[in-house]
Structure formats: C-alpha cells, structure tokens
Amino acid sequence: MMELPPTRAGHLGRALSATVILLFLAMPIVIILVTSFGADGIGTFPPEQYSTRWYEQMAAPGGNWATSIALSSLVAALTTVFSLILGVTAATALARGRLPLHAAVYGLVLAPMLIPQVVIALGLFLFFEPAGMLGSPLAIALGHTVLAAPIAILIMISTLKGIDERLEDAAASMGASRMTIARRITFPLATPGLIAAAVFSFITSFDEFFIAQFLSTPDTRTLPVLVFNALQFDVDPTVTAVSAVLIALAILALALVALVRKLGGHRNGQNVLPVEPLT
C-alpha cells in the first residue's frame, strides 16, 4: 500500500494540536508559579503585586515549613536507601534468577502499585501503632518504601535486562569472581538505572501523603501533611511557594535522569569493557 506524503496542512494541524495539549497540561503549573510570587494574602491570579514573601516564610529557620521540609528530606533519603537495597536485590533475582512461581513473585512485588494507598496506610498504622512508632521518621520511611520499592524494582529489572549477559560470562570465563563481575561490569553499566531508581524513590517519598498522614503525629508532619493541614480550613498562600518548589524539584529530577541516561548510553557505547584486568 502506497503511503501518501504528509501535507503542509497536516503538519500545521499536528503542530497546533500538540501546542494546545501542552498548554492545557502546563496551565496549572504556570498558575501556581505565578501565584507564588503574589504579594496578597489570598492567592489571587494574576497577582496585583509581586513579592517573595511566601518563599521567605517557607524558608524561615525554625518555622513549621522548614521543619517539615527537613523531615520530608530525611524520610525520603531513608526511603531511597531502603528502596535501592530492595530494588537491586529483587531485580537481580527476577531478571537473572530461576525463581519458582516467577510470575506470582513478580505480581506480589508489584502489588503495592495496584492497591489503594489509603488501604496500605491503614495496614501500616495498625502495624506500627502497637509498637509505639507513630511519628518516627524510620516508620514513615519504611511505609514509603512499600510504595517506592516496586518502582525501583521495575527500573532495575529493565536496566539489568538491557545489559548483555555475555559480558559477565566472558569475565567469569577469565576467572573473575561474582563480586568482581558485579563491581567492575554489572554495577558500572547499571549506574544510570541506579540513579533513576534513586531519584524516583526520593520523589515518591517526598510527595507521598496517605502513609505520612496515618503515621505522623502533631509534632512530626511531613511536607504534604502540612500542606493538607494548611488548606483544610483556610487558604495559606505559602502553599503556592511550596508547590512551586516541588514543581521545580520534579523538573530537576527528570532532567537529571535524562542527562544520566544520555551520558550512560554514550559511555557504554564508547567503551563497554574496562581496560584493566578483571581478576
């Protein structure tokens, strides 16, 4: 069947449609960013006057916002460590191992992505409350790991399947131990995937609300919980500044992942095998 060449009208129509869709998707982000610089206390759009007062209030030392940002950062960092440990371990077993009931194990690992988060949060509350761990950053991080680990596992499975196993077999045939193969071949080639898994685990934890709401106390509130409390009975314009920072964080994270994958692919294409001996 002969394919007809695209017409100029077709190109124009696709470009116009894509532009409209992108503007529609970006509109809420633009509104938040502009409103965050408003000087009034009711968060109107567009602002009549511009100021950075809400950013200054958000970053004020010792304030509720700064404390919640620090707590969310700590919890997200712990979640990232736990998720990477589980992600590398489970992904190696699923991608390279010969597990019995492989499909069932794979489904069980990914189950937290399908179960409503409020159900997981309730189960974690019933687990940690008798242990007196409500409000503990460790408990919140463990709860967030339930959601972040499946994402890390999916990324690492895709990364490991993209590594040519013949490289590892060749190193083993030359006498390299399993640890040497992992250290000199597998992990260097999997670095882009590790960084992507770490970034998405951090973002998942930093933005999570339901588990943090169930496991937090009045003295330990993560940033999403504080945002919810600030909007529950009134409109605090500081929330717009917080939202703008979260948007910027997400954009930077995606840019970092894209850059690392591009550099990793270029490096792997130029020099896959290390030049020094593997033993």
Alpha-carbon distance between the two ends: 57 Å
**What is the strand content?**
under 5%
Query: Structural class, judged by helices and strands?
Result: mainly alpha
User: Could you tell me the number of beta strands?
Assistant: 0
Q: What oligomeric state do the depicted chains represent?
A: single chain
**Helicity, as a percent range:** over 70%
Describe the global form: globular
SSE succession:
HHHHHHHHHHHH
Number of continuous helical runs:
12
Largest sheet: none
Family: Belongs to the binding-protein-dependent transport system permease family.
Subcellular location: Cell inner membrane; Cell membrane
Domain ABC transmembrane type-1: 69-258
Keywords: Cell inner membrane, Cell membrane, Membrane, Transmembrane, Transmembrane helix, Transport
Q: What does this entry look like structurally?
A:
The protein has 279 residues and is an all-alpha fold. It has twelve helices and no strands. Helix 3 packs across helix 9 (191-207), helix 5 crosses helix 6 (137-161) and helix 9 packs antiparallel against helix 12 (238-270).
Key terms:
279 residues, mainly alpha, transmembrane helix, MetI-like
Describe the structure concisely.
With 279 residues, this protein is mainly alpha-helical. Helices cover 72% and strands 0% of the residues. The chain is built from twelve helices and no strands.
Write the layout of secondary structure elements.
Layout: H1 8-35, H2 53-58, H3 64-96, H4 102-110, H5 117-128, H6 137-161, H7 165-173, H8 178-189, H9 191-207, H10 210-215, H11 223-232, H12 238-270
